Predict the structure.
Amino acid sequence: MKRDLNSIAALEKAIAEKFGNEAAMNPKLLWNSEKEQEYLKQSRESQIKEAKLENSQQKIELDGVLIAKKLINKNVERHCDYCDRYSFNRDEAVYLTKYGTCYKCYIQYIMDREERWKNGWRPKMEQKNGT
Ligand SMILES: [Zn+2]
Protein backbone atom coordinates (compact mmCIF):
# COMPACT_ATOMS: atom_id res chain seq x y z
CA MET A 1 0.00 0.00 0.00
CA LYS A 2 2.68 2.38 1.06
CA ARG A 3 4.64 1.57 -2.07
CA ASP A 4 1.60 2.30 -4.22
CA LEU A 5 1.03 5.64 -2.56
CA ASN A 6 4.69 6.45 -3.06
CA SER A 7 4.55 5.55 -6.73
CA ILE A 8 1.42 7.68 -7.20
CA ALA A 9 3.19 10.55 -5.49
CA ALA A 10 6.19 10.00 -7.73
CA LEU A 11 3.94 9.97 -10.76
CA GLU A 12 2.22 13.18 -9.68
CA LYS A 13 5.60 14.75 -9.14
CA ALA A 14 6.73 13.67 -12.59
CA ILE A 15 3.54 15.04 -14.12
CA ALA A 16 3.93 18.29 -12.21
CA GLU A 17 7.45 18.66 -13.57
CA LYS A 18 6.31 17.98 -17.08
CA PHE A 19 2.94 19.71 -17.24
CA GLY A 20 2.76 22.01 -14.22
CA ASN A 21 1.00 21.73 -10.88
CA GLU A 22 -2.50 22.08 -12.25
CA ALA A 23 -2.21 18.84 -14.18
CA ALA A 24 -0.68 17.03 -11.21
CA MET A 25 -3.71 18.00 -9.10
CA ASN A 26 -5.88 15.88 -11.35
CA PRO A 27 -4.01 13.46 -13.61
CA LYS A 28 -7.34 12.11 -14.81
CA LEU A 29 -8.25 15.52 -16.18
CA LEU A 30 -4.97 15.68 -18.01
CA TRP A 31 -5.50 12.27 -19.50
CA ASN A 32 -9.02 13.15 -20.52
CA SER A 33 -8.04 16.39 -22.10
CA GLU A 34 -5.16 14.74 -23.93
CA LYS A 35 -7.46 12.05 -25.16
CA GLU A 36 -10.07 14.61 -26.08
CA GLN A 37 -7.52 16.65 -27.99
CA GLU A 38 -6.43 13.55 -29.83
CA TYR A 39 -10.02 12.64 -30.57
CA LEU A 40 -10.80 16.13 -31.79
CA LYS A 41 -7.70 16.11 -33.94
CA GLN A 42 -8.62 12.79 -35.49
CA SER A 43 -12.20 13.79 -36.04
CA ARG A 44 -11.07 17.03 -37.66
CA GLU A 45 -8.70 15.14 -39.91
CA SER A 46 -11.35 12.65 -40.91
CA GLN A 47 -13.77 15.47 -41.59
CA ILE A 48 -11.23 17.13 -43.87
CA LYS A 49 -10.58 13.79 -45.57
CA GLU A 50 -14.28 13.23 -46.09
CA ALA A 51 -14.77 16.73 -47.39
CA LYS A 52 -11.93 16.26 -49.86
CA LEU A 53 -13.32 12.92 -50.96
CA GLU A 54 -16.78 14.37 -51.35
CA ASN A 55 -15.37 17.20 -53.39
CA SER A 56 -13.50 14.91 -55.72
CA GLN A 57 -16.56 12.76 -56.18
CA GLN A 58 -19.01 15.51 -56.80
CA LYS A 59 -17.00 17.86 -58.93
CA ILE A 60 -15.14 17.27 -62.12
CA GLU A 61 -13.07 19.65 -64.13
CA LEU A 62 -14.45 20.70 -67.48
CA ASP A 63 -12.50 23.20 -69.53
CA GLY A 64 -10.73 24.36 -66.40
CA VAL A 65 -13.96 24.94 -64.52
CA LEU A 66 -15.12 22.78 -61.66
CA ILE A 67 -18.61 21.56 -62.32
CA ALA A 68 -20.77 19.43 -60.07
CA LYS A 69 -20.90 15.91 -61.39
CA LYS A 70 -24.65 15.88 -60.86
CA LEU A 71 -24.97 18.66 -63.40
CA ILE A 72 -22.90 16.75 -65.93
CA ASN A 73 -25.11 13.70 -65.53
CA LYS A 74 -28.14 15.87 -66.09
CA ASN A 75 -26.57 17.25 -69.23
CA VAL A 76 -26.09 13.75 -70.54
CA GLU A 77 -29.81 13.22 -70.06
CA ARG A 78 -30.39 16.37 -72.03
CA HIS A 79 -29.31 14.69 -75.19
CA CYS A 80 -32.28 14.41 -77.53
CA ASP A 81 -32.81 10.81 -78.63
CA TYR A 82 -34.26 11.81 -81.99
CA CYS A 83 -32.28 14.66 -83.46
CA ASP A 84 -28.98 14.12 -81.64
CA ARG A 85 -29.18 17.62 -80.33
CA TYR A 86 -27.86 18.66 -76.97
CA SER A 87 -30.06 20.94 -75.00
CA PHE A 88 -29.00 22.99 -72.04
CA ASN A 89 -32.22 24.90 -71.89
CA ARG A 90 -33.92 24.38 -68.57
CA ASP A 91 -37.41 24.40 -70.10
CA GLU A 92 -36.43 21.74 -72.59
CA ALA A 93 -35.21 19.51 -69.81
CA VAL A 94 -38.88 18.89 -68.97
CA TYR A 95 -39.51 17.38 -72.41
CA LEU A 96 -36.23 15.52 -72.35
CA THR A 97 -37.04 13.99 -69.01
CA LYS A 98 -40.60 13.12 -69.96
CA TYR A 99 -40.20 12.02 -73.58
CA GLY A 100 -36.45 11.85 -74.19
CA THR A 101 -36.75 14.50 -76.89
CA CYS A 102 -35.94 18.16 -77.18
CA TYR A 103 -38.65 20.79 -77.42
CA LYS A 104 -38.33 20.90 -81.21
CA CYS A 105 -38.96 17.17 -81.50
CA TYR A 106 -41.76 17.43 -79.00
CA ILE A 107 -43.49 20.00 -81.20
CA GLN A 108 -42.80 17.97 -84.32
CA TYR A 109 -43.67 14.48 -83.11
CA ILE A 110 -45.49 14.54 -79.82
CA MET A 111 -47.55 17.65 -79.27
CA ASP A 112 -51.28 16.91 -79.88
CA ARG A 113 -50.24 13.32 -80.58
CA GLU A 114 -49.26 12.24 -77.11
CA GLU A 115 -51.44 9.14 -77.31
CA ARG A 116 -49.55 7.95 -80.36
CA TRP A 117 -46.30 8.55 -78.52
CA LYS A 118 -47.52 6.72 -75.46
CA ASN A 119 -48.52 3.78 -77.63
CA GLY A 120 -44.91 3.44 -78.68
CA TRP A 121 -44.85 5.26 -82.01
CA ARG A 122 -41.48 6.80 -82.74
CA PRO A 123 -40.31 8.91 -85.68
CA LYS A 124 -38.12 7.12 -88.18
CA MET A 125 -34.70 8.61 -87.94
CA GLU A 126 -32.75 8.32 -91.18
CA GLN A 127 -29.44 8.70 -89.38
CA LYS A 128 -30.16 5.86 -87.00
CA ASN A 129 -31.55 3.55 -89.73
CA GLY A 130 -28.55 4.21 -91.90
CA THR A 131 -30.64 4.78 -95.02
ZN1 LIG B 1 -34.72 16.65 -80.77
The mean pLDDT is 73. The CA atoms of residues 36 and 93 lie 51 Å apart. The two ends are 100 Å apart (CA to CA). Residues 80, 82-83, 85, 101-102, 104-105 surround zinc ion (CB under 6 Å).
